[in-house]
Amino acid sequence: MENPTIREAEIKDAVPMAEILREIGWSEKRNKMSLNEVSKPIEELIEHCSKDAKGHTMIVAIDEKSKVIGFTNVHWVPFIMLGSWEGYVSDVFVSPQAGGQGAGSALIKHVMQEGEKRGCMRLMLTNGKEKPSYKTGFYKKMGWTERPKVANFVYYYKEPWS
Ligand SMILES: CC(C)(COP(=O)(O)OP(=O)(O)OC[C@H]1O[C@@H](n2cnc3c(N)ncnc32)[C@H](O)[C@@H]1OP(=O)(O)O)[C@@H](O)C(=O)NCCC(=O)NCCS
Questions:
Q1: In what order do the strands lie in the sheet with 5-8?
Q2: Alpha carbon nearest to ligand 1 atom 34, residue
């Protein structure tokens, strides 16, 4: 597969998106839940993002059989200190069965082009240092820079997937 097609996410994509997350298997808890339990909240998120296309861009990569093989989600954040906009990429996931065939790069390139069209100052995301994507320099190869002086803080209301 050379060039996966990128399109906006639709409600019906919630199930294949949930399946991809389960295939990747980062959470034992999620993998024990029913597909419906995993996909229902995703449906709500797709609906939210597609109703506010100015604020969010949720996209999927599809193969030649129109199967969803990956997805990403970016939120366009008005950033006062920058006097501009930052795109926060919250999710980048490709089915392991379709990995290494360009879907992840195609999703990120699409986001980079969208940010440029919108006149954004920069894009931002987090990448677990123990993940293969970090170790193989997925984002660095695409021109992204790791920030040496910035710590990534989170405040948890709930531990995700604990
Ligand atoms: C990271 C991820 C999105 C890459 O998607 P992909 O479709 O396999 O990526 P591509 O085929 O476009 O590009 C692969 C390139 O990235 C590197 N790479 C990224 N992730 C990799 C992985 N898990 N295993 C091996 N190589 C990986 C490869 O070195 C390859 O580089 P090359 O083109 O120089 O050979 C996918 O592996 C994934 O969903 N991983 C789990 C979730 C994750 O880590 N997301 C990113 C952090 S938020």
A1: 5-8, 56-62, 68-79, 84-94, 122-124
A2: 141
User: Over the stretch 30-63, which tens digit does the pLDDT of each residue have?
Assistant: 999 999 999 999 999 999 999 999 999 999 999 9
| Ligand 1 atom index nearest CA of 141 | 34
pLDDT confidence of residue 159: 85
* Residue to mutate, 108, 133, 144, ligand 1, most ligand atoms under 8 Å from C-beta: 133
pTM above 0.90, yes or no: yes
Break the chain into its structural domains and give their ranges. 5-126
**pLDDT reported for residue 2:** 63
Which residue, 4, 3, 6, is CA-closest to 112? 6
* Ligand 1 binding pocket includes 16 (Cβ within 6 Å): no
The CATH class that applies to domain 5-126 reads alpha beta
Candidate of 91, 138, 144, 161 to mutate for ligand 1, largest count of ligand atoms within 8 Å of Cβ: 138
